Amino acid sequence: MSSLEKKESFGSLVQLEPDSVGEKFIHFERRTMRSVDLHIIPIVALLYSFALLDRINLGAARTAGMGPALHLEVGARFSICTVIYFIPYIILQIPGNLIIRKFGARRYLAFCATGWGAVQLGMGFVTTWGYLTLCRMLLGVFEASFFPGIVYIISSWYTRYEVQKRLAFFYLLSLTISGFSSILAYAFSLLDGKRNIAGWSWIFIIEGSVTLFLAVISFFLLPDFPELNTFLTPDQTQFVLRRVEEDRGDSVPDQLTVRKVLHHLGDWTLWAYGIMFMCCTLPAYALAYFISIILKGLGWGTTTALLLSTPPYAPAFASAVFFAWLSDKTRHRAGYILIQGLISITGLCLTAFSPQNNVRYAGIFLLNAGSSGCIPSILAYSANNVVGSSKRSISSALTVAFGGVGGIIASTVYREQDFPRYLPGLWVTLGAQFLLLFLVGATSLHFTRMNRLSREGKLAAPLEGQPGFFYTL
């Protein structure tokens, strides 16, 4: 279906034009998009923050006493418990995004949240490290579809140069809330002995209960795709669909087939986005799982290590939002990913090689700022350079799946025998940042070349099959 045919299929959609003065149209646009923002970003950010809390509280629980209780110090048990989560998390990313439209985003994502909340609650009652490992695997099953599903939904609502700010706010609000996981873990661990339950168990029980509560609420509040929404008026819905159609021509979902999925997976740039995402999530997961343990190894006590784990997340929010705003304003992605990658490298070098603990701690601030900012930047970079609902679904799922690979690497390269400095893990993380810079350069050169050939009329077909489309650098 051509872009013109798609527009004609909306009926009154094409009749919605700004008035002669334009003031009513501007007011209508602002009111509509403000409503979209308020109905999407806060609820998904809040729910995903608890997904992150439930995913990363393993390190805090171990610091609070779970390690000796479940004998996690024996061999590689802690790494096994950590890494098992990512196996179903990776495998189920693409299938989850392929069926999300079939079941409806709101119902499907609320079901996932209920599942992982129940598992998290159950983790508070495990008695052996084997049961803990089983719960971690189930956690990966239920969380697999949530993040790529939300990225898919957000990118369906906004134009290409609006999406990074929204992705940044969604992800960073979640990250900031989850950044208090160590403080919350410390507070919950103070319940040690209440009802004959260990302090580390209370961490899982309370956080799992809150997740279940939010999952019930989310069934009524989670957003769906634009054409299925219930909070906008018909004219507002048509307006949103129209602006997406004019921006990239994919407001109408294309039919999904096995042949089409395999065709999309043959695009090497989708795999490049995934590997780039893996590179920037590796340090994020390393900090999430090991920051309190690393700080304790630097000589701080349990309480201080847990409390000092939160401050590095504050400047990360400000930095990433600034780069997201600048990126959308200048309609440029790759250069800002490079800058934030260099910030990560600087922080890694300080943390790995400085002899002073305060400098190493300062390096964690820079590392967290760089990696946290790269995550929404890469998601926006990939979302801007695909056209079509089916390809957008595959791209977001594949990208986030590679984030799980970053989690596996982080879980295995930070080994018990390398405590307290974890130098081999830091070296691997540093190498991943250089790989990120290389792939950003490679995709930028490729997109520059394809844009030039398209402008010169030397291509047999329009880029991404969409006339007038050009890749975002």
From TrEMBL:
Membrane-crossing segments per the record: 36-56, 76-96, 108-131, 137-155, 167-188, 200-222, 270-294, 306-327, 334-353, 359-381, 393-414, 426-448
According to the UniProt record, one GO cellular component term is: membrane
Which residue intervals define the domain Major facilitator superfamily (MFS) profile in the entry?
Answer: 40-449
Which compartment or compartments is the protein found in? Answer: Membrane
Q: How does it sit in the membrane?
A: Multi-pass membrane protein
Keywords annotated in UniProt: Membrane, Transmembrane, Transmembrane helix, Transport
Q: What is its main location?
A: membrane
The protein's matches in Gene3D superfamilies, at most eight in alphabetical order, are given as:
MFS general substrate transporter like domains (1.20.1250.20)
A single Gene Ontology molecular function, please? Answer: transmembrane transporter activity
Q: Which InterPro entries match?
A: MFS, MFS_dom, MFS_trans_sf
Name of one Pfam family that matches: MFS_1
PANTHER family membership = MAJOR FACILITATOR SUPERFAMILY (MFS) PROFILE DOMAIN-CONTAINING PROTEIN, PERMEASE-RELATED
Q: What name appears for this protein in its UniProt entry? A: Major facilitator superfamily domain-containing protein
